[in-house]
Amino acid sequence: MEKPRIATLALVLALGAPLAAQAHFGAGIALSVPTGAFNNTNYAPAGTTTSPSQEGYDSTLGGQFTISFPVQKQLALRLDIYGQTSTGTDTAPGYASYNLQHQIFSFGGEAQFFPGDGDAYRHRGGYLVGGLSLDLEQFSSSYGDPSWSGYTVNKTRMGGLVGAGYSFRPFGRWRNNVEVAYHKTLTDTATSSQPTSFDPATPAADFVRMTYGIVF
């Protein structure tokens, strides 16, 4: 039994070593702008609330870490780890407003296509990117400010991402990287008819993120 295991491990290392040797690591900071229901949602009156309510989340900053594995001159596979925290409010005429908070930690697997003179091996030039992600999310609502001691709903959902970027080297061997991408929640987007501070709504976490970082 030991010999097959050793042979399998050796094969994995033999195949993985070239990819790891050519991998490009990246880190960046992103400006995230919510869209759709994540940006603004109107709810009809329900239950004891006789006024319509409106809620939405604000733009925020997020952090990104990537590992790009080139497999051809114009194609790379990328691991994309991204996280952000957004705040927002829910308001209804005649009722006290309450605070919202949304946290997302996303693990993505994507393909990068470098057309024209782009080079995946050097991570240079323009590229298109797209793939899927596993999104770990938490929605919170509270009257406390700045203390978030209210009610929370946890979600694990699938997301999709499409975008475009450009990687260039102003000096040295590190490359500057700019990217604009759209993230969309793909599963479990249902929410309550009218949320309360005791029952946060869970809209799809759709947003555009604009990232600037370095790749080395």
How is this fold's topology laid out?
Elements: H1 2-22, E1 24-34, H2 36-39, E2 41-43, E3 53-57, E4 60-72, E5 75-91, E6 98-113, E7 125-142, E8 151-168, E9 175-185, E10 207-215
Antiparallel strand pairs: 1-4, 1-10, 2-3, 3-5, 4-5, 5-6, 6-7, 7-8, 8-9, 9-10
Characteristic terms for this protein:
216 residues, mainly beta, Porin, 8-stranded antiparallel beta barrel, elongated
Could you explain the architecture of this structure?
It contains two helices and ten strands, in the order αβαβββββββββ. It is mostly beta strands and 216 residues long. The two termini are 41 Å apart. Strands 1-4-5-6-7-8-9-10 form an eight-stranded antiparallel beta barrel. The protein has one domain (23-215): Porin (Beta Barrel).
How many domain units? Answer: 1
Shape: elongated
The description of the largest β-sheet is: 8 strands, antiparallel, barrel
Task: Determine the structural class based on helices, strands and strand pairing.
Answer: mainly beta
- Order of strands, main sheet, comes to 1-4-5-6-7-8-9-10
Which whole number gives the mean pLDDT?
A: 86
Q: Count of DSSP E strands?
A: 10
What is the helix tally? 2
Which fold name is given in CATH as the topology?
Porin
- SSE succession: HEHEEEEEEEEE
Rounded to an integer in angstroms, the radius of gyration calculated over CA atoms is 21 Å
